[in-house]
Design a protein that fits this description.
377 residues, conserved putative lor/sdh protein from methanococcus maripaludis s2 fold, Elongation Factor Tu (Ef-tu), domain 3, OB fold (Dihydrolipoamide Acetyltransferase, E2P), 6-stranded antiparallel beta barrel, 4-stranded antiparallel β-sheet
């Protein structure tokens, strides 16, 4: 019996010690203070977007043939009109040369006949003058006028032949151009499909084939990303936006909302979205970016400047915070919140700039009057 009494006493003492330690042990926490700054109301994408170029073309040949010359390499910067790729075209070059010679011959023939027509016209004028003075016969005057008219028609016909030869040359140039792939705009050669000696063929209807050259214009880049349908009505073209890229952690780029899709995309029944485009506005930001980067966007709807704000991670559900009093004890305080985003929540009333609030919301034992130790002091 005596042993049971001793054991009971030991347990009672241990319980009392635990109870006292429970009341006096301070909870280690991290805190933050309020500050004045800007708070924005933003709309963000629901899934990662992608960086795209305003102009990107998969260039293909209009006809099939063997690749004769590759004039560029992947990564080359090219200007509009640059010859990129050429099929075997010796026959068409020869036809073009022949057409050029025919045009030259027709031009010379036209010049000759037109000079003769001018001389015949002058002779007809002289014969008319001589006839009026009685120094030549009517037959000679009429013959000179007939010859002048015939020469004029020959000159006109020669002009028509020149036009026909010029049209024939344009046809040969067009046929030759079918074997030459040129850049339609300034850009960077992203990819070339095919090598010298290989055959390329145009895509049959309904059966896409890889383009011969992928050309990207890096002078204009934008991000296309999905926005939840419930937020789409808040958006309008021209709104300020920010772009963040996984490839550039911690860096944001200035953007502008340039397009809102006129329809809702139904990829999943529970997640209907609207595609939007946000364009990079600063030229220097595009220098080192690559098309295809994953990207996120924040479209700014409203901004309150120089307002009292607190870190959003410190806010409890129902717009409350754990405030640390001067006695290092916690007090749960509700406040009126204004604008909020992932980073900051605006404090309209209920808290002051001198308050210190908890950031460590997952610590055990958080309750009113709980004693804490502030680790960030």
């Amino acid at each position: 019996m005596r042993g049971w009494l001793i054991a009971g006493g030991v347990v009672s003492i241990a319980a009392a010690v635990w109870f006292l330690n429970r009341d006096t042990a301070a909870i280690p926490v991290q805190t933050t203070r309020f500050e004045h700054g800007d708070v924005e109301l933003t709309v963000s994408n629901t899934r990662a977007g992608s960086v795209k170029a305003c102009r990107r073309s998969g260039l293909s040949m209009p006809i099939g043939g063997r690749v004769e010359v590759l004039h560029v390499s992947e990564g080359d910067q090219v200007a509009a009109g640059t010859l990129l790729l050429e099929l075997w075209n010796d026959d068409r070059k020869a036809q073009k040369t022949h057409a050029e010679a025919q045009l030259a011959a027709a031009s010379h023939r036209s010049e000759q006949l037109c000079v003769q027509a001018e001389e015949a016209q002058r002779d007809a004028v002289r014969k008319q003058s001589l006839y009026q003075r009685g120094l030549t016969s009517l037959e000679l005057r009429d013959a000179a006028q007939t010859q002048a008219s015939a020469a004029a028609f020959s000159c006109e016909a020669a002009h028509n032949e020149v036009e026909m030869a010029a049209a024939a040359l344009e046809l040969q140039r067009a046929l030759l151009a079918e074997t030459q792939l040129r850049a339609p705009f300034d850009g960077v050669v992203a990819e070339i499909t095919g090598e010298v000696g290989e055959y390329v063929t145009p895509s049959p209807p309904g059966i896409p084939t890889p383009p011969a050259v992928d050309l990207i214009d890096y002078r204009c880049l934008y991000v296309t990303a999905p926005i939840d349908e419930v937020d789409a009505g808040k958006l309008s073209v021209g709104q300020v936006a920010r772009i963040s890229l996984d490839a550039y952690r911690g860096v944001t780029f200035a953007g502008e909302l340039t397009r809102i899709a006129p329809y809702v995309t139904e990829i999943e029944k529970q997640a209907r979205t609207v595609e939007v485009d946000v364009q990079f506005v600063n030229v220097e930001d595009r220098a080192n970016l690559l098309v295809g980067y994953s990207a996120d966007i924040d479209v700014v709807l409203t901004t309150h400047t120089n307002t009292l704000r607190v870190a959003t991670e410190a806010v409890l559900e129902g717009d409350a915070v754990w405030r640390v009093g001067p006695d290092q004890k916690l007090e749960k305080v509700a406040f009126e919140a204004g604008l909020r985003n992932w980073n900051f929540t605006e404090v309209v009333s209920g808290l002051s700039a001198d308050d210190r609030v908890l950031l460590t919301l997952d610590a055990d034992g958080l309750e009113n009057d709980a004693l804490v130790t502030v680790l960030d002091d």
